[in-house]
Amino acid sequence: MRKFLMPVCAALLGGASMAAAQTHDTLTLGIGQFPPDMHPYITNSSMKDYIRSPIARTMTWYTRGGQVMCLLCTEVPSIANGRARVMDRPDGSKGMQVRFTLKPDLFWGDGVPVTARDFVFAFEVYRAFSAPQQVDAVVAVDARTLQIDLNRTRYDFDRWAYAPLPEHIEGPIFHSAANPLDYGQKSALNRHPENPGLWMGPYRIAEFRPNESVLLVPNEQWRGSKPQFRRVTMRLIDNTSALQANLLAGDIDMVASGNLGLTMDQIIALSKSQAARFEFIFMPAVTSYEHLTPQLDNPLLADKRVRQAIQMSIDRTTIVARLFENHQEVANSFMHPSQAGWNPAVKTWPFDPRRARALLAEVGFKPGADGILVSPTGERFSVDLTTTAGNRTRELVEQVLQTQLKAVGIEVVVKNEPARVMFGETLRKRTFRGFVEFQADPQADWVPDFTFQSIWIPSAENNWSGTNYMGYRSPGMDAAIAAAQNELDPGKRKAEWRRILDIAAEDLPEINLFFASVGYVLPKWLAGVVHDGPGQMLGTGPGWIEEWHVRQ
Fold first, then answer.
1. What is the mean pLDDT of the segment spanning 240-256?
2. Span 60-169: which CATH code?
3. Which CATH class for the 25-56+185-280+519-550 domain?
4. Residues 6 or more apart from 460 whose CB is under 8 A from it?
């Protein structure tokens, strides 16, 4: 009997385990923000990228080691494989011609094939919402071959095919619109995101409730690895304390990673008290940095010496130690020291409030009756500080900034906003007067054109495109960025990087805070979420959600 009962019990237990695993056919994610729209070329939002990553794909992306990899193409273009070549242009300058070949099994959710025409159309829309581009032509050579003619050499030629747009749906809307903003309001991506034909990832949107939730279901036309979950719900809980409470109550299975979900201090605390219930993973995200974007059209902040003084007034080391237990890393620049273009000799601004006060006095600021500085024109040095409302850690950082800047005579008034307002209006239209705090998530080997070049200052003339929210104008920076972009030799490009870093260190168009680490809080039964091998795809939230599965 003993020999008989033990296998039966084992089988029963195994069956119970399998049954339990099978019950996990849905997944609910808590998200701390909601995007202002779902169009890839209208506004910039990390939350939008997060939601789009399981339902749309770009031509190329990056490995965790920083190399370009194909998602929709058969081979990454290079000069060595003949898919990219330097060309003589009619005016005698040098340009480039780059060709991408699409994989043969790509379909929109309504069964229409994804073709090179969808990329050509995407470029047409992108141009309408952006400043002048370095592109002569984008041509569909045939259904699967896309050719891009650049009007100059560029080191990043292998990633100039962006996310496609379904021309069969969006084309008529775009071409009948009165102007780009009219198109943005009428786009099916924003008005009817439940249309299956808009999406070509492993999932598609089945239900979209603005500022509430997004329901994803498997895309029947997806030819890649089969998604494991019948339904994936992303539910907005825009207060981090409430987000944590919902997680602990079991109302959600997990939360969005990074600054889109729980704050780092919450994750650290949970890792000490909830290790039996959840798996905790901390990974450095060296291209993601938290910073303050100053409004440079405000006379109080226009002088670089003022920004230098503000940088020296902030004790970043203490912020990182006390708020994050050193899970974040102090940022002395917008570039992390591990990146190829870094220069260890770049100028830094360590915490030095005494020197900061002296520098502000040099500019002409004098203490007023209440201790707050007064400018040479008689204006009280009081500035607003805005960040995403409900983010507890950022609110704590704001309190520290208020205290530390007040110590040198600068008053900071907190005016937080919902993420959709802050990214969709305040930053995009540059309506803030002081600072906005947020996290930037640039590409692995980016040259910061969108952030620091003057042509990327959002305005009505360029349909509020670009992320130079500061209004930073520097001919030297413009030239250095252009030179770095146009240099194909990595060694020579590093010399141009030195110029970019030196100018940024001197001008401080952004106030640096810290480099973010990504904290994951995962249910014990869920596997495949985090990739850490250098050859694996760099994380963009659920960017490889088809590999998520129930742990066996």
1. 95
2. 3.90.76.10
3. alpha beta
4. none
Rounded Cα–Cα distance for residues 259 and 318 (Å): 20
Per-residue model confidence (pLDDT) at position 131: 66
Nearest CA to 54 among 171, 202, 156, 157?
Answer: 202
For the chain, residues classed under CATH 3.40.190.10 are 25-56+185-280+519-550
pTM comes to 0.78
- Cα separation of 464 and 498, whole Å? 30
The residues pairing with 235 across neighbouring beta strands, listed in sequence order, are 30, 213
3-state secondary structure string across 165-213: CCHHHHHHHHHHCCCHHHHHHHCHHHHCCCCHHHCCCCEEEEEEECCCE
pLDDT of residue 53: 92
Q: Give the CA-trace dihedral at 359, 362, 363, 367, to 10 degrees.
A: 80
Which of 3.40.50.2300, 3.90.950.10, 3.30.450.40, 3.10.105.10 is the CATH number of 285-516? 3.10.105.10
Q: Which of 204-213, 259-268, 397-406, 468-477 has the lowest mean pLDDT?
A: 259-268
- CA distance linking residue 382 with residue 374, whole number of Å: 9
Could you tell me if 512 and 308 are in contact, meaning their C-beta atoms sit under 8 angstroms apart? no
Pairing of strands 203-209, 213-218: antiparallel
What is the C-alpha to C-alpha distance for residues 70 and 60, in angstroms, rounded to an integer? Answer: 4
